[in-house]
Specification:
mainly beta, OB fold (Dihydrolipoamide Acetyltransferase, E2P), 7 strands
């Protein structure tokens, strides 16, 4: 038995990028900056996020660069072949299942703060 669950709280590193597919599915990608508790460095760790379906629409509408969010999801390793060199490449990505908007009133309208859990949407 294995467990693949990732829980992170951090700030959006950029505004979300949204793609709509012919099937009607929505994909939102963004980066998340997370500070380490034990690190004396001011440099955060950066994570690439993929959010699908209704949760992606929520992220696209309410998350902006600098927004404080919490996510729960699973770690995936995306692999591809580099077009220029033919080298196999890979990158870790977190597939987000749950999005929590954690910002203060200054960050976002208080009525919009909440949790959103996505379905099993795929393209």
């Amino acid at each position: 038995m294995g467990v693949n669950v990732v829980n992170l709280v951090g700030r959006a590193g950029r505004d979300p990028e949204v793609r709509y597919f012919e099937s009607g599915t929505v994909l939102c990608t963004l980066t998340l900056a997370v500070n380490r508790r034990s690190s004396k460095s001011d440099e955060p760790d950066w994570f690439n996020l993929k959010i699908w379906g209704k949760t992606a629409e929520i992220a696209a509408n309410y998350v902006k660069k600098g927004s404080l969010i919490g996510i729960q999801g699973s770690l995936e390793i995306e692999t591809w072949t580099d077009r220029n060199t033919g080298t196999n490449r890979s990158s870790p990505v977190i597939r987000v299942d749950r999005l929590d908007l954690l910002g203060s009133k200054r960050d976002t309208d208080a009525n919009l703060v909440g949790s959103y859990q996505g379905g099993d949407d795929e393209f």
